[in-house]
Every structure is written in C-alpha cells, then in structure tokens.
Amino acid sequence: MSEKNLIKGQTGDWEVVIGLEVHAQVIAEAKLFSGADTSFGAEPNEQVSLVDAAMPGMLPVINKKALEQAVRTGLGIKAQINRFSVFDRKNYFYPDLPQGYQISQFSDPIVGKGEIVIDMEDGESRTVGITRIHLEQDAGKSVHDMDPISTYVDLNRSGVPLMEIVSEPDLRSADEAAAYLTKLRAILRYLGTCDGNMEQGSMRCDANVSVRKPGDDLGTRCEIKNVNSIRFAAQAIEYEARRQIEVIEGGGTIDQETRLFDANKGVTRSMRSKEEAHDYRYFPDPDLLPVNLSEEFVEEIRASLPELPDEKKDRFVSEFGLSAYDADVLVAEKAIAEYFEEAAKGQDAKTVANWVTSDLFGYLNKEGLEISESPVSAKQLGALVGLISDSTISGRIARDVFAEMCASGKDPGDIVEEKGLKQVSDSGELEGIVDEVIAKGTAQVEQYKSGNEKIIGWFVGQVMQATKGQANPQMVNEILRKKLTD
Amino acid sequence: MASLTDLTLTEAQTGLASGDFSSKELTEAHITAIEGARDLNAFVIETPERAIEDAERSDKRRASGEVGGIEGLPIAIKDLFCTKGVQSTAASKMLEGFVPPYESTVTAQMVEAGMVMLGKTNLDEFAMGSSNETSYFGPVVNPWKRNSDDQPLVPGGSSGGSAAAVAARLCLAATGTDTGGSIRQPASFCGIVGMKPTYGRCSRWGIVAFASSLDQAGPMTRTVRDSALLLQSMVGFDPKDTTSADVPVPDFQAALGQDIKGLKIGIPSEYRLDGTDPEILGLWDQGIKWLEEAGAETVEVSLPRTKYALPVYYIIAPAEASSNLARYDGMRYGLRVEGDTLTDVYENTRGEGFGAEVRRRILMGTYVLSAGYYDAYYIKAQKVRKLIADEFSVAFEQVDAILTPTVPSAAFAHGEKSDDLLAMYLNDVLTVPASLAGLPGISVPAGLSSDGLPLGLQLITKAFDEETLFRVADVIEQSAKFTGRPDMKA
C-alpha cells in the first residue's frame, strides 16, 4: 500500500478501505422481465407493462439479451461465468416496488470473480478484484415533491435491467475509487453493455467505506447509497473517511449503517442503522427456472468481444509507439480511441496523438463538447497532420488551419487552398527574400558575425513576415545560415 | 331426450353437432339452472348476458362451419382466472370489483375453442382452503346431503364453487386450479371427475398466483371423457410462462377406451393412514379389484416419505404465497384503506382486505423465509420435496400408475373443521404428494359412503403421461358405474 493514500489523523495515519457496488443499466432493448421500453426521457408511467405493474397473475419472462450482456460484461472483466444461476426474490414493501419484491440474484449470480486494472494519474496501475456481477430489476421512482401531502409513483424504471457489479474491498482512496469507476465505465461502454450515463441514472454507485490503522483488521463499514457521479463518489468517500476518523479519534465507535450523500452540502447523513435493516427473505423465484447457459452461448459471446481498453492501450504503445500516458488518455473512452485510430490511418500516429490530446481536447473542453460533437472529423484531423508531414504547411500554420476547421468544419486542404496558406518551399523564391532581409539588416548581420547566433531569430521573423508565415521554416534556417556564414 | 343440463360435455358436443339443439338453448337451460340454485353460492359472479352473446356467436360460427374444440359448450370459470372485462376476485375482498384488462392464457384458449362462459365460480380466498369456507363471498354449499342429517355440507376446496356447479348441473364443466388438492379434493366431495395435469401442462399466466411452483389449472367434469375433452383446450406451451412446458400435446381422448391389460398399478401402503375412514379403505380395495379384473397387475410400491408431504407443503406453499400476495398493497388496484402513514395504509389495506386464513398463511410463509429460520424450514422442505419427487420417480420405473384414495374422508358439514386447523389441512394429505412432485392426478367418483356421500379414488402417473392417467381412470369409471347424483330437491 502506498504511503500517499494514508490520511493523517491526530493519532497517526489512517488507511481507508473501500468496496464499490455499481448498478449499471443493461442495454437490452427491453426490461429484464417484460417487453416494455426502457429508453430515457419518457413521460411518467408511459413504459409500464402489466408485468411491471404487478397485475394479478402476471409472470416474469427473462430477457435473453440481458443474460447475454451480463455474460459479455463478465468476460470483459476476465470473470468466471456461472453457467448455472438463479433468480431470487428480495422481499420488501415500498410503493415504487409493485410486486412487493425485487427479482435479483442472491446465492447464485450469473458472474463470479473477476478483475479490473485501474490506472492512476502518476502512471501506476493496480488490480481491483470483482466479487460478482448479478442481474436484478430496478424499482420505480417515488416523487415526493409534486404535492405537499401525496407521493407520486413513476413505474417507468420498474423492471429496468441492472447489473450489480460488486468490487472487493480493494480500493484505498477516493482517487482510486474514482479511477475504478472511470475504468469500469469505459469497459462497459467498450462492451456496449451499459451506456454509463450517470446523470441519466444508468450508472449508480453504493460505496462501502471503513477506516483502520495500517495493518489492523477491517473497521466497521458504512454504506453510502446511490451516488450518481464519479466526482460525488470521490467527495462522499473522502468526507466519510474523515468523518469516521474523527469519530474514532474522538473516542467514539462507528455504527454499521446506511448513509446518504448530500451533494449540495458535500456531507453524508445517516439513513438507517443496521437494526432497522430489512430482513429481505430471499428465496428462489418460483416463477423463473434457474438459468442454464450452454458453453456454446458463452463461447459465442467470447468470440464477439471487442478489443478492450487494456488491450488497446498495449497495442497503441507497441504499434504506434505512443507513451503509456498518451495511450491511457486515448483509450479512456471508446469514442476517443476510435477517433484517434481513424485519424491516424496513414499518418504519423504520434503527431496525431499530440493533436488529439492537446489541440482537439483543448478546443472540445473549452466549448464543452463531446468527441462525438467535434466539428473536426477524424479524417479531417488526419488530413491536417498529413499536410504537415508532407511540408504543405508548417506546424504553426496548421494551428491557424485547425482553428478555421473548428469554426467552419471545412477540410484542411480547402482552407489552405482558399487562403493561400501553402508553405513556400521554393528555394529560389526563398533565397530572394532572404537576400532582401539580409540587405536590410546590416546591423544584425554584424551581430551574427560577431558571434551572436541567436540573432538569427530576427532574420527568420523578417522572412516569415514577408511571406505571411508561409515560408518553410527549416529551409529558411538553412538558407540563412549559409548566406550569413558566406 | 334428457334435460339439457343433464348431458355430459361430450354428449352436448354431439347434440350441438347434430343440430339437436343450439348453443343458445343449451346456454339458456344452464342460466335457468344457475338462477334456481343460488342458495349453493357456487358463483361469485354470473355472466348470463355474456353467455348468451357467446352462444349466439358460437351458433353463427357453427352455421358457417367453424367449430372449435369446445364450441358452444357452457362452462364455468373458477374466479382465480383473470377474465378480460369480467370481475376477477380470487374470492377476496382485496380484489372485489377488480376487472382485469387481460385474459388468462387458459381461458383465452378456451374462448378461442368456442367456450360459452357462464360466470366465475366461488372458491376459498386466494385458493387457500379445503372447504370453500374462507371465501369473502361466503361459503359454497355442497349439493349433496348426507343421509343422517340435513346439515349443509362443504363442497371441498379450493375449487368448491366449480365442483358444486358441475355436480349440481349448473354447467357442463368448469375449470379449477390445484395447488395441493384444490381440484381433486372437491371433486371427490362432490362426486365429479377432477383432474390436475402435470405441472407445466397449462400456462399459469393470468391465474392469480397462490404458490407458483405448485399451482396448476385443470378440468372439473362429470366424466373422464369430458375431462380429456376440456383439458385439450386448456393445455399448451405459453412463452409468457417460463414454467410452462414446451412438450407435444397428445390427443387425450384417444387414450380412452383402451384396455389396461398388462399395465402395472402401484399401491402405496403409506397412503393407508391412521384415521382414514374404513369405508374409504374398502373402496380403495374395491378399486384394486376393478383394475385387476380389467387385466392390470397391482404391485405394492413404497413411498416412505409420504408422511412428510403435508408439512413440506405447508412450508413451501405459504412461503411462496407470502411473497406472491405482497403485490396487494392498495397502491395500484383493488382495495385501499387509507391511513395516516404509509405503514398504516399497508396495515389497514392488508388487514381488511385479506381474510383470516390468508393472513395466517402469509404469516407462516413470512416466518419460514425469515433470517434464522430459512435453512431450518424452507431449505429443508425443498430438500424433502426433492426426495418425495425422487421416490415417485423410482416407483414409476416399476409401475405405470398409482392408485390411492383422494381424500381420507367424505364431505363434512359447514363449521365442522373450522376450529381444527390440522383436521382441515389433513384433507389434502393424499393429494399433496403428487402436487409436490408436479405429477398429474385425477379423482374419479367411485362409490358412495354408507351416509350417502360420494367418495373418489385418485390416480397418479409420471409427468406428462396424462394419457395413461385417463386410460386407467376410464376403467375405474366404467367399473364403478357411478350414477349417483345429488338430490337437488332435498
């Protein structure tokens, strides 16, 4: 364990132990046990089937696509796929839970132990264990603020398929938790099993947090429920760890309880204690037969797995010679990796990587755009790099062209053509201009000859001014040195 | 010609086919019969207008040459089946006035096959009971009376309304559902044929759930042939019910009228329980003789875990029920009784909406699933259930069918067993084992007690072998020559 993760308390250093349970909405075309639509943004109770409303006599039927997606996710985190799994009922009463039970998987989940490698900003990698992934249905939504007395219930989410992805208590800081969530989300998006849009609720996270002195046994944990952004998760964990340290150092003990994160105040608050915890009376759902997956089914999915971030990163390093850091940045999101690869086709990949991570990201960040909304297509960026490589334009001109591409969406070649930005590489033409500049700058020539080589910059500047920046800088340098030394 | 209501389902089918009478005439005769027998309380809701419309449409179809499997036949539906546009209550206050916008798969198939629906029959609330005394809409009266007194008797349960209606000639046939004996036991009490198919034969979709792993729909009729005829329209794989079986459906009537020479019939000594009416044991011996006379070989089989079946059933069925009935919370449909807090609304609604027996079973089920008791009760019960099923499997390596009595006693009087829970639950002791194993069973009326009440014999076969079940039941029926019928005027 690295020292830097420790939190300093009054009685010494503390270690934070974190396990995360992520609820990821499965992309499965329909609900887990009914054919109802699950797309985001419908009016309340527009996406509710008879099954979702738990009408008398209605029966659940498993959505095979959801099973496939859970297996795909399991394979994506190198996990054991359980060919036999069981759906259980988790019984409790709540108005947004129409059946009076949630169908989930308890003792026999569809996916067993796996792992995720997280990449920290300092370039270090850590492997985080995954305990299990199970499928379950979401509850509806209780709306308390539409009326002073009544609560309204929206059942659109009732029955929406979720994967609960449970990590081992392997995380040791809020930053690691954030890195884990980021990586998990990337993997899910690569796999196409969850869209990872936390603001739309398709990915939520419960954090189990405890603290201990390094080397001690695990402390009592608190569970922070339903955190809906990576930033909030990190904030909540950081706050909760410090709260627990404060309690213990103040002579208190931690009560095992469920807490909620108040994003406005940045604090966690007690929701219910262990004593108030439900007895969920899990038992196998008698309406559903156990799930038996054939080896063929699993192998077919395995064969169709896409290249995942870790493999892609390795390939970017070995195939394109990128730095590990650049490769990390580029594979973090599937869309970015795809953009990069498209742009790098037939071009110098390292130059393309630089353009993507500096100029393109800079522009997108400034404008608040996603890569998918970029006005500059991958092909266009590749073409721009091509123009630099074949000396059509200089790197400096390329920046102006890029700005114009962002503004107009035009192809770089057209912009260069229209604006006459083509680099002047005609040595005869350049020599003439250089001669003129030298003739004007007798004082500077003297300085150069007396040993001030830096003054050459002045000559270059003059040539650039005369050519509106289009002179090939390398050639200008060469010609200047030759003529000044003569 | 016999009265139209005295016809068997099969005879009525023939009469309609040969144009002796129309479906409308047949239906009107039954509507009149129902109106004249309301003191039996066999129906929760009568649907005479719908029945007449069904019949008129059926007559038109027939005229155009379109004839379904149960075309134009007036049938009653247990009020546990959801029927589109017709109140479906499960005999509970909780669902009083509930009109589903959907039709159960089984009744939808029957409609498709030409059924005329006469109404929804009474039952024990949520199918929980063996006497039809737990219905919110009041108890059903068995049309049979015993010789010794004039007390109203129970029709058995939970499909008591269906059994009473079939026995009293209020319908040609009815649907029932059987979880632990709810078709077979009332059939025995009312002197009719009650058949529970293999678990998975009929779709459970749209049937109000009691215990999902046990519930199964089946026909209640006056003859074995009628049973086979009606079952044909009820069965079939349904993709909407994961537990329904995707297996071929045989022609059930084709199994009838074949001899049973060389068939091996198992006689399990463990069904000879203490406290069983000696008359019933005598009838059982008689049944063994009938089958031997017809050329079958009877063999002793051992089912030593039979004695655990009832306790196992009363763990598993309430456990599933406690969860299945959680949806009746006053939030979306059915009864809602207001309160100051959410918990009050739940408690008021469920306290008022469910009767005592339903509440008792929810409590038992909740208890056996609770932390600390789950392993000792639920898990252990599931293990024993598996052993009971295994025992049957071993027996069926040896024999083709098993013959037992259906119930350890004849019908009893209203209130007679209401205070003795165990005595009430013991009604199902002989039917529950086959339910736990998911096996098909049939109760065939085989004789009368000395007090003049019908007694049934039960046959059980291996899963999806309803053909052998009907084949042997047919022989029992022919040998027993049961012609008894309730004295309607008494």
Strand order of the largest sheet of chain B: 1-3-2-4-6-5-10-11-9-7-8
Q: What count of helical segments of chain B does DSSP give?
A: 15
Q: Extract low-pLDDT stretches of chain A.
A: none
SSE order of chain B in H/E notation?
Answer: HHEHEHEHEHEEHEHEHHHHEHHEEH
How many H/I helices of chain A? 15
Of all chain pairs, the largest interface belongs to: A-B, 29 and 43 residues
What's the mean pLDDT score of chain B?
Answer: 96
Largest sheet of chain A: 9 strands, mixed
Radius of gyration of chain A: 30 Å
CATH class of the domain at 2-261 and 474-480 in chain B: Alpha Beta
The rounded distance between the terminal residues' Cα atoms of chain A is: 64 Å
Strand segment tally of chain A: 16
CATH architecture of the domain at 2-261 and 474-480 in chain B: Alpha-Beta Complex
Helix content of chain A: 25-40%
| Spatial extent as radius of gyration of chain B | 21 Å
Instruction: Tell me the strand percentage band of chain A.
Output: 15-25%
Structure characteristics:
heterodimer, A: 486 residues, alpha+beta, nine-stranded mixed sheet, three-stranded antiparallel sheet, 15 helices, 16 strands, 39% helix, B: 490 residues, alpha/beta, Amidase signature (AS) enzymes, eleven-stranded mixed sheet, 38% helix, 12% strand, globular
Present the secondary structure layout.
The complex is a heterodimer of chains A (about 475) and B (about 500).
Chain A: E1 7-9, E2 12-25, H1 64-76, E3 84-85, E4 88-91, E5 101-104, E6 114-119, E7 125-137, E8 141-143, E9 152-154, E10 161-167, H2 174-191, E11 203-212, E12 222-227, H3 230-249, E13 257-262, E14 267-273, E15 283-284, E16 291-292, H4 295-303, H5 309-320, H6 324-331, H7 334-344, H8 349-367, H9 378-389, H10 395-408, H11 412-419, H12 427-440, H13 442-449, H14 456-466, H15 473-485
Parallel strand pairs in A: 12-13
Antiparallel strand pairs in A: 1-2, 2-10, 2-11, 3-16, 4-5, 4-15, 6-7, 7-10, 8-9, 11-12, 13-14
Helix pairs in contact in A: 1-4, 2-3, 5-6, 6-8, 7-8, 7-9, 9-10, 12-14, 12-15, 14-15
Chain B: H1 9-17, H2 23-36, E1 43-46, H3 48-63, E2 74-78, H4 105-112, E3 116-121, H5 160-167, E4 173-178, H6 184-190, E5 193-196, E6 216-221, H7 224-234, E7 264-268, H8 278-293, E8 297-301, H9 306-324, H10 342-353, H11 356-369, H12 375-398, E9 401-405, H13 421-425, H14 432-437, E10 441-448, E11 454-460, H15 466-480
Parallel strand pairs in B: 2-3, 2-4, 7-8, 7-9
Antiparallel strand pairs in B: 1-3, 4-6, 5-6, 5-10, 9-11, 10-11
